């Protein structure tokens, strides 16, 4: 099924409308799925299509998308809230590898925690309905001289 149609159905199921402005925001997220965009980044991209759309509208729409479990609000340690589309093909949120040197972020689509969830349910009587796992570390191939965090630190000092 077309992702926009799927999201439209999710909106309708909760008595919300996927307005043209909301659809434009969703399209930006779909077109930039690997980028984990911030509110401001989404706003700048949508503004070209809807110049009168305000930042507050983008923020409210992203919060609604979170409430409807269409996107997940994430923080990767850089102090910026970012938005990540949930994958309908999986019961749980995908996982991330986050380089603490350069900030590179990579998604892991496989769900490695199913066995652990079963154990948690067996041993604690706790049914896991969702989970998210972020691995922080350093890539072997990370090049410190090209590190964007290094540049940010120099800009601050």
Q: Can you tell me about this structure?
A:
There is one protein chain. With 157 residues, the protein is α+β, with helices and mostly antiparallel strands. The chain folds into two domains: 89 residues, Winged helix-like DNA-binding domain superfamily/Winged helix DNA-binding domain (Arc Repressor Mutant, subunit A, Orthogonal Bundle); 68 residues, Ferric-uptake regulator, C-terminal dimerisarion domain (Dna Ligase, domain 1), CATH 3.30.1490. The strands form two sheets. Strands 1-3-2 form a three-stranded antiparallel beta sheet. Strands 5-4-6 form a three-stranded mixed beta sheet, with no helix packed on it. A hairpin with a 5-residue loop joins strand 4 and strand 5. The longest helix is centred in the middle third of the chain and has 13 residues. The radius of gyration is 18 Å and the shape is globular. It starts with a helix and ends with a helix.
Estimated helix fraction = 40-55%
> How many whole angstroms does the radius of gyration measure?
18 Å
The dominant shape is globular
Question: Structural class, please?
Answer: alpha+beta
Please give a handful of descriptors for the protein shown.
157 residues; alpha+beta; Arc Repressor Mutant, subunit A; Dna Ligase, domain 1; 2 domains; three-stranded antiparallel sheet; 6 helices; 41% helix
């Amino acid at each position: 099924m077309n992702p926009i149609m799927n999201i439209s159905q999710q909106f309708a199921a909760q008595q919300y409308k996927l307005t043209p402005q909301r659809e434009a925001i969703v399209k930006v997220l779909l077109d930039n799925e690997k980028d984990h965009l911030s509110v401001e980044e989404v706003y700048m991209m949508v503004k070209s299509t809807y110049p009168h759309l305000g930042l507050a509208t983008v923020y409210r729409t992203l919060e609604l998308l979170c409430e409807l479990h269409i996107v997940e609000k994430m923080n990767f340690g850089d102090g910026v809230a970012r938005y990540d589309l949930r994958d309908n093909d999986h019961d749980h949120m995908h996982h991330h590898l986050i380089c603490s040197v350069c900030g590179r972020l990579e998604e892991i689509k496989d769900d490695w925690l199913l066995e652990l969830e079963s154990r948690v349910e067996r041993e604690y009587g706790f049914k896991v309905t969702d989970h998210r796992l972020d691995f922080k570390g350093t890539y072997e191939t990370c090049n410190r001289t090209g590190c964007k965090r290094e540049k940010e630190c120099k800009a601050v000092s």
